[in-house]
Amino acid sequence: LQPQGSEEARAFVNAFLKRSMPKKKDEAIQDILTRKAVVLEHYSKKKTKQKRRKSKGFTARQRREMRLFEIEPEQQRYAIFLPLHELWKQYIRDLCHGLKPDAQPHMVQGKLLKADLHGAIVTVTKSKCPSYVGITGIILQEFKHVFKIITKEDKLKVVPKLNNVFSLEIDGFVSYIYGSKFQLRASERSAKKFKLKGTIDL
């Protein structure tokens, strides 16, 4: 290798500094060259953040087309869901701390209004439509406006909440549910404050 002359070395350093510090002017680079130490600047490219796409679930129409919530006819038997009812009773006992005889009724009522009712046995006690009165069975599905109930005769009944009063009994405690004031999804009821006083019409 042949040693480079001072002029060639200066030209090389000048070119190198211009590439390394493109935002500096020539005067500023010459000023830097007069110093003993040179700090090279590094310009990092800003990374563009990609927006995360939220995964969308199925629409109501898609769920209907896929029949996600439909119970097959061979599964519509009361005996199949009796174990579910036993699990529900244990769930309510745990929720209400044992349902002791000295338990305050309004406390139990408040717990039941917010509880999950899948597996509960209910009876339609009052209705503006007489054909609904007396229907008794296990709640298999709860939607915003209806209950799907399986009766002892292995018949799946779709009972609207509107204009119906349901009774629910567990360990001797009977609770009444006014369906007209109960038109919520199961997931929404846990956060709702219910009024336990006052007159309620069908």
Task: Explain what the structure shows.
By secondary structure, the chain is of the alpha+beta class. It folds into 2 domains: 4-34, no CATH class; 73-191, Roll (SH3 type barrels). It has 6 helices and 6 strands. The protein has helices at residues 6-20, 26-33, 60-66, 82-95, 105-114, 186-189; strands spanning 121-127, 136-142, 146-150, 156-160, 164-170, 173-178. It has a 6-stranded antiparallel sheet with strand order 4-3-2-1-5-6. A hairpin with a 5-residue loop joins β3 (146-150) and β4. The mean pLDDT is 80.
Task: Give the helix/strand layout.
Blueprint: H1 6-20, H2 26-33, H3 60-66, H4 82-95, H5 105-114, E1 121-127, E2 136-142, E3 146-150, E4 156-160, E5 164-170, E6 173-178, H6 186-189
Antiparallel strand pairs: 1-2, 1-5, 2-3, 3-4, 5-6
CATH superfamily of the largest domain: Ribonuclease P/MRP, subunit p29
Count of domains = 2
Number of strands: 6
Order of helices and strands: HHHHHEEEEEEH
Indicate the CATH topology of the largest domain: SH3 type barrels
Question: Could you say what the CATH architecture of the largest domain is?
Answer: Roll
**CATH level 1 name of the largest domain:** Mainly Beta
List segments where confidence is low: pLDDT < 50 over at least 5 consecutive residues: none
Distance between the termini: 103 Å
Largest sheet: 6 strands, antiparallel
GO molecular function, one term: ribonuclease P RNA binding
Family: Belongs to the eukaryotic/archaeal RNase P protein component 1 family.
GO biological process, one term: rRNA processing
Protein name: Ribonuclease P protein subunit p29
